């Protein structure tokens, strides 16, 4: 049986010492391959287009082009499978801009090494990786703006249960195992939840459900 291909990772951060530390963390994992390091947003876009990584680990505040704008360009061009934001900034507007750009994960730089590694694996597999504090802040922000204007859709108990496990970072096979369901049934419940919430991906589904009070903010 052939070994699975490594997860190819591009690291983008304008601080050389921080970038080197993150790159070293990636390089130490047997199932990761560090394909490059970018020092600004424009370089990240160019390198992603040339290297086609699976995951870009992206800082938000960078010269020439900020991380949110770089994320949007990389994903629009199909240059990477996913972008995982790794930042020191928790301000609502900065993080919200990354969500709107399409990032699949949002971690703070004080996260433990194993949390970062796990998040890279999650987003590479098409899952969601959210730092609890970031998710809570985003939910509070969006509730403040839209609470009175948006009526929460009614999700079935099973749809809420599946979505709650997505929020925990579980993949569809893991959810199926946890709930004793077939994987196709999990996908059906998730698809119905997406339709009711008016979203197209797992990240948006979780955040929207938290915003509307269908799921509790993570703590």
UniProtKB/TrEMBL annotation:
Cited Pfam families: GerE, Response_reg
4Fe-4S as a keyword of this entry, yes or no, is no
Residue span(s) of domain HTH luxR-type: 148-213
In terms of superkingdom, the source organism counts as Bacteria
Annotated SMART domains:
HTH_LUXR (SM00421), REC (SM00448)
The entry's keywords: DNA-binding, Phosphoprotein, Transcription, Transcription regulation
Q: Which InterPro entries match?
A: CheY-like_superfamily, NreC/VraR/RcsB-like_REC, Sig_transdc_resp-reg_C-effctor, Sig_transdc_resp-reg_receiver, Tscrpt_reg_LuxR_C, WalR-like
Residue ranges of domain Response regulatory in the record: 8-124
Q: Does the keyword Nuclease apply?
A: no
Q: Which residues carry this modification: 4-aspartylphosphate?
A: 59
- Descriptive protein name: Response regulator transcription factor
Q: Which organism is it from?
A: Pseudoclavibacter albus
